[in-house]
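Consider the following input, taken from an annotated entry for ribose-phosphate diphosphokinase (Metamycoplasma neophronis).
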Amino acid sequence: MNKKDDNVVIFGMENSKKLANEIGEYLGREVLPVQKITFADGEQLLYSDTTVRNKTVFIICNTSKPVNDNLMGLLIFIDSLKRASAKRIICVMTYYGYARQDRKASGRQPITAKLVADLLEASGANKVITIDLHNPSIQGFFEIPVDDLRGQFIFSSELRNRKENFVIVSPDHGGAVRARQLSELLNTGEQIAIIDKRRTAPNVSEIMGVLGNVKGKNVVIYDDIIDTGGTIIHAAEALKAQGAIKVIIAATHGLFSKGFDMFENNPIIDEVIITNSIDHSELSHYSKLKELSMAQFLGMVIQANIKNTSITEIYDAYSQGN
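Applying the prediction step yields:
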């Protein structure tokens, strides 16, 4: 470890301890805990026991449920690091809460994804590293650098090792680019398919049809987020009705707001693949759930930020199956 590397400190927020420790193991670095005091009225005080003066600080974190508690805790901790004279504060947000509130869908609604960006900047963050933002345009809400990493590279490594051909299916028109990128990484020669759906209310949609040929094919429905799961299960049913053989669901962020039983007990669903962007330790007993670790991927990105090298080189290595 050179002298420059000695000026780097990595913290793992309470909700990301497991992933943070895996990243630390990959990098060969100690991941420090965040000190936390909760007062009787619910107020929180978060701080570092270790000096961070003139150091580059990475915070491994996510703002999944409870979203407001996790977001507020992160803002408080960033503020404490700024006031402790940290040179640079980089948030590695494996899940960016409120990302789906990225526009005014109707009058008098907030754009909360922008509000969160403002809060992160105001608290003292100098850069945000995240993965699969619900809408890549959220990067434009920031006046600081944002690395919106692509989860396709993590999934391509897993699916490539299975030695099978898959048709990648987007659950809606908006995810077609994401599905195309994963399909190209797999290089199987298969065309993608798209579920034609109409959203009738939050977390509620109607499947209108399937665009593309899935008959006699193994399919992977690829999305950024699984929340309640109802829409993506309807998509799986539509694909099965069109003659799909094996149906796998893959998503970077598994929220599972209504639990996992609906997937486990559904005979149409063969498997659900997610990353550990959110801690799913309580779901480890489910046989149909497979969790991919993003520790190596994020570790390489953090190392690139420390050494000021290109993230494109990391993408190239994953594209070549290295």
